[in-house]
Amino acid sequence: MSNYKLIVEYEGTNYHGFQIQKGGIITIQGCLEEAIAQIAKKQVKIIGGGRTDAGVHALSQVVNFRSNLTVPVEKLPTALNSLLPKDIRVKTASLVHDDFHSRYDAATKTYLYLIEYGLVESVFKRNYCWWLKKLPVWDNMLTAGKYLEGTQDFAAFTASGSSVKSTVRTISSFDLEVLGNAAKLRFTADGFLYYMVRNMVGTLVEIGLGRRDVDSIKRILKSKDRTQAGVTAPARGLFLEKIQY
Question: Taking the chain, what is the end-to-end CA distance rounded to the nearest angstrom?
């Protein structure tokens, strides 16, 4: 039985996240497994490199699954895309070694968050960014964001009630790129907690808007208390950009 690796992009607007859930809720995983099953002629379970939440997008999600398909691997993207909704696309397919695991083998993940500023929200960008009506001080957000780098306890930035063995993660890099009235916030880490990126972005925006001082990030981290951090940024601005192995 072969181990297949897919690189997938999707718009998460119409989905309840990546992972299959009970109750027939539509998810990215569910759609992918349904399409693969039509080709494999039996149910196939896929493993995702990142479990994106409802409304979150992916530019380069990685999944793997085991099967014996008759379709040549180089033609698999075309075959799957003919069966998938238009907001889910398989970009590439390849055969990988038997022990490859898209989630456990991941060394780092990079998430991108898009923010735009303007008095009137764009009709065409509304599903892909957090639209602000007041211009933040980008430099303050960049300075504050740099305090997030390193190996630290991010308990203050995880969702309340989250159950994980450890809330310590290593953010290897944070960057903020300004493009006109827009900004790209990019986080690379060995892993992320539930809602961690969106909670960090919400806090950085409050700093950019002058509601918190730049050094407040240090105090929030030290507190390990979710109530000390800022609002949760909307899911629509978040993209799983890259997973490195």
Answer: 23
pLDDT digits (tens, 9 = 90+) for 93-127: 999 999 999 999 999 999 999 999 999 999 999 99
Of 53, 153, 175, 225, which one is the catalytic site residue? 53
The CA-based angle 172-169-99, given to 5 degrees, is 90
Q: How far is CA 125 from the centre of its chain?
A: 18
Per-residue model confidence as pLDDT tens digits over 133-181 = 999 999 999 999 999 999 999 999 999 767 788 999 999 999 999 999 9
Q: Which domains does the chain have, with CATH numbers?
A: 2-96 (3.30.70.580), 108-244 (3.30.70.660)
Report the 10 Å Cβ neighbour count for 14.
13
Nearest to 81 by CA among 12, 26, 10: 10
Please indicate whether residue 99 is annotated as part of the active site: no
Taking the model in full, what pTM does it have? 0.95
**How much of the chain is helix, strand and coil, in % rounded to 5?**
25, 30, 45
